[in-house]
């Protein structure tokens, strides 16, 4: 899986392959414009740095390479791309542009084909000034303002960032109208709309987009808009339940299929004036239809929850005014869908009343192992995808609806003395981008909820989105799956999981670790939830491919599961019972072997393991875990100054002067001299004969065609305890030249890892 580009995506202007053929009479040009305006659309490939600046919560790509992992962050936020069509002459249409946009249009017109650098213009000092200009009826500012919301997840904390517009030069074709050899035939001239502190260090990436028409977006701040959303949701749900075979299939394991909630909210019906209440069935529910809510609690958690003390009161009537706004909206919407029951964790699980609340601990332990099945068996999952807190609600304000801009015409003079005319069309939200930048999906629990749900109605920041096994559509294009909806980072596992009955074991194992590399960067209120929040997914994988689940690692892929490296060195959670070799001890990891699908060769034998859990093995509630493995063992001089130590955002200067540390590695660095340290404190113990155990060898991909065989080894530290075998804990991972460090080593040892 490729890493998301660290450059912002271009907002491109499509130029036809044979632009000379476009010469036509003016009467035909007007008709051509009207027809093609219906066929154009936009595309964006967002930038990791963009998302880190805007939300500071986005996970890195699962398959990022060393070079990109260490690229310096650029102070850019987001860029968008619009499409256009080209005609001989512009239609007779009055332009309403502000002074800044007029200057840009003039500069755009004077740009020559041979210019090798972008022309740039700052349209507004911040989003507020841009909005004011849009309110003054500048058409281009209105389009840029909409793009600001549709093409990135925007936080108002960046309200002081300037808004930029810039043009990249057109790549001319040959005299016969065809592209030059090796040139992308659909590579257009590019127009960038950006939000950030600088536009000097950007890279463009433009891709083709599919044509589609769009419908209007509901204003959820109005009753009329909510009713429109209800009607659309009912249509999507009926279509899925009637026509989508894959969405109606139950899990092969009958126990998983029959796992239904212990408690649900009775939302009442449209015909009854009954207050919602908690419902606890006296016997197992059969064939019940219910909705599950996926949402983020947020930092403000002063809302009503169910506890052991108020359980009886909640079964009589929920305290409406004290419920979180998102829960209120979910109850309203569920009732409007004519579905009687709703499952919400805050109300359907006993919440803590203090550190000594044994009833909460017992109830949470029982329910946490069943969370996944609750979402899997729900008729529908409602997701507060665009909200960062439960106080935001489902019915979010949509600022982009303030304007309904008309297309903008930009002219460009060519070197041949002709004038090309570009029609810039207002953007519409894309499914892929709305999900990729979603606030909710930075929350770890929400990842499992999305993976396991059969059907999801996403209340996005800009529009409604539908997701099921067979369809991914938006409110703006409700009947046609977005062609880019499956191209995001982390989507491989989602697709493989939903098609698991037709997948091979190796495929699922590899996809699992690729998925974990994305999942590990998500956020948790409690660090110890990282494995429990995977319990439902793990249970499904274990059911399909029976094997032991060893603290986040699969029995049939232990070497691969040990070959992780930290993206950012940090101190482990002191209260964690997880073993040092478990990836879940760290906030953000990558897996070495996923770089190359063919060249990874494991080099250890797994002798035995032991895992003690509170609940099923897949519950993730680890009490104790140990591994006994056998492999090539060597003491390595890690004080060698030629080695490159990786500490994420930290350097090692404060700990030692004996090793080299780079905060930004040159793309040409050596992948066979890298050392990743898990815990910054461990640098003090590194010496010239440090114990390392080889777990595999590989040819990691380089920027060139060159291949270097590297040995991937665990860096160990003795605990001082010796039983049947010497006991060690993991403190890092090394990628070193196999021929130089491991080729002639004969020392095979069996060690116990804790």
Radius of gyration: 28 Å
Helical residue percent? 10-25%
- Average per-residue pLDDT, rounded, comes to 76
Largest sheet: 8 strands, mixed
Number of domains: 3
Tell me how many strands there are. 30
The general outline is: globular
Q: Ends: how far apart?
A: 31 Å
H/I helix tally: 20
Low-pLDDT stretches are 1-80, 83-92, 170-188, 199-214, 648-668
Strand ordering within the main sheet: 8-7-10-9-11-14-15-16
Q: Give the class from helix and strand content and strand pairing.
A: alpha+beta
- The proportion of strand residues reads 15-25%
Tell me briefly what this model is:
The protein is an alpha+beta fold and 754 residues long. It has 20 helices and 30 strands. Strands 8-7-10-9-11-14-15-16 form an eight-stranded mixed β-sheet, sandwiched between helices.
Protein described:
This protein is of the alpha+beta class and 754 residues long. The protein has three domains: 11-213 and 399-428, no CATH class; 223-397 and 436-484, no CATH class; 501-753, no CATH class. It is 24% helix and 21% strand. It has 20 helices and 30 strands. Helix 5 packs across helix 6 (139-150) and helix 16 (491-498) packs across helix 17 (505-519). It starts with 10 loop residues before the first strand and ends with a strand. 48% of the residues are buried. Residues 1-80, 83-92, 170-188, 199-214 and 648-668 have low confidence and may be disordered. It comes from Fusarium mundagurra. InterPro entries: HET. This is Heterokaryon incompatibility domain-containing protein. Residues 290-449 form the Heterokaryon incompatibility domain.
């Amino acid at each position: 899986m490729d890493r998301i580009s660290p450059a912002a995506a271009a907002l491109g202007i499509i130029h036809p392959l044979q632009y000379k053929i476009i010469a036509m009479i003016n009467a035909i040009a007007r008709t051509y414009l009207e027809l093609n305006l219906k066929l154009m659309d936009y595309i964006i490939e967002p930038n990791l740095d963009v998302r880190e600046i805007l939300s500071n919560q986005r996970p890195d790509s699962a398959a990022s390479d060393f070079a990109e992992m260490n690229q310096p962050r650029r102070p850019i936020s987001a860029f968008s791309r619009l499409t256009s069509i080209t005609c001989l002459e512009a239609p007779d249409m009055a332009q309403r542009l502000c002074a800044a946009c007029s200057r840009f249009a003039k500069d755009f017109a004077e740009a020559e084909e041979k210019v090798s650098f972008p022309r740039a213009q700052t349209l507004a000092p911040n989003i507020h000034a841009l909005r004011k200009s849009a309110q003054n009826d500048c058409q281009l500012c209105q389009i840029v303002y909409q793009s600001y919301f549709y093409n990135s997840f925007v936080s108002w904390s960046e309200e002081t960032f300037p808004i930029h517009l810039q043009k990249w030069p057109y790549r001319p074709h040959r005299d016969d109208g065809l592209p030059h050899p090796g040139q992308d035939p659909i590579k257009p001239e590019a127009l960038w709309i950006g939000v950030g502190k600088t536009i000097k260090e950007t890279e463009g990436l433009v891709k083709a987009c599919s044509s589609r028409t769009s419908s209007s977006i509901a204003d959820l701040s109005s009753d009329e808009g909510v009713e429109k959303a209800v009607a659309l949701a009912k249509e999507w749900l009926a279509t899925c339940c009637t026509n989508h075979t894959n969405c109606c299939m139950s899990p092969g394991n009958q126990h998983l299929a029959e796992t239904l909630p212990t408690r649900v909210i009775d939302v009442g019906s449209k015909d009854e004036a009954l207050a919602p209440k908690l419902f606890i069935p006296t016997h197992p529910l059969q064939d019940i239809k219910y909705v599950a809510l996926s949402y983020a609690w947020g930092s403000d958690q002063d809302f009503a929850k169910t506890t052991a003390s108020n359980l009886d009161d909640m079964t009589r009537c929920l305290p409406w005014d004290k419920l979180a706004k998102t829960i209120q909206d979910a109850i309203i919407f569920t009732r409007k869908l004519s579905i009687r029951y709703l499952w919400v964790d805050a109300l359907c699980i006993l919440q803590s009343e203090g550190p000594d609340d044994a009833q909460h601990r017992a109830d949470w332990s029982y329910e946490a192992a069943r969370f996944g099945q609750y979402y899997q068996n729900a008729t529908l999952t409602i997701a507060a995808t665009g909200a960062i807190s439960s106080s935001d609600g489902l019915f979010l304000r949509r600022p982009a609806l303030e304007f309904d801009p008309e297309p903008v015409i930009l002219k460009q003079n060519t070197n041949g003395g002709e004038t090309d005319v570009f029609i810039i069309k207002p953007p519409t939200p894309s499914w892929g981008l709305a999900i990729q930048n979603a606030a909710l999906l930075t929350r770890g629990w929400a990842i499992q909820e999305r993976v396991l749900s059969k059907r999801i109605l996403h209340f996005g920041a800009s529009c409604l989105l539908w997701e099921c096994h067979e369809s991914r559509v938006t409110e703006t294009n409700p009947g046609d799956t977005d062609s880019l909806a499956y191209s995001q980072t982390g989507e491989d596992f989602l697709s493989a999981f939903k098609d698991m009955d037709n997948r091979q074991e190796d495929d699922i194992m590899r996809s699992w670790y690729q998925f974990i590399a994305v999942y590990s960067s998500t956020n948790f209120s409690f660090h110890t939830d990282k494995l429990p929040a995977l319990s439902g997914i793990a249970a499904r994988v274990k059911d399909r491919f029976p094997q032991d689940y060893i603290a986040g690692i699969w029995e049939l892929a232990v070497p691969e599961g040990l070959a992780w490296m930290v993206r950012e060195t940090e101190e482990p959670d002191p209260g964690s019972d997880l073993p040092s070799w478990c990836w879940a001890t760290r906030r953000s990891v990558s897996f070495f072997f996923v770089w190359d699908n063919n060249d990874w060769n494991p080099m250890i034998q797994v002798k035995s393991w032991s895992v003690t859990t509170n609940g099923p093995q897949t519950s993730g509630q680890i009490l104790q875990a140990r591994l006994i493995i056998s492999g090539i063992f060597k003491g390595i001089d890690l004080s060698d100054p030629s080695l490159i130590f990786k500490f994420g955002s930290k350097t090692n200067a404060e700990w030692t002067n004996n090793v080299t540390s780079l905060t930004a590695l040159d793309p040409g660095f050596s992948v066979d001299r890298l050392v990743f340290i898990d815990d910054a404190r461990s640098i003090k113990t590194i010496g010239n004969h440090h114990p390392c155990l080889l777990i595999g060898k590989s040819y990691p991909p380089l920027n060139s065609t060159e291949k270097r065989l590297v040995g991937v080894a665990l860096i160990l530290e003795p605990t001082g305890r010796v039983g049947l075998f010497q006991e060690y804990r993991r403190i890092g991972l090394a990628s070193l030249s196999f021929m130089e460090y491991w080729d002639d080593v004969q020392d095979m040892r069996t060690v116990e890892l804790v």
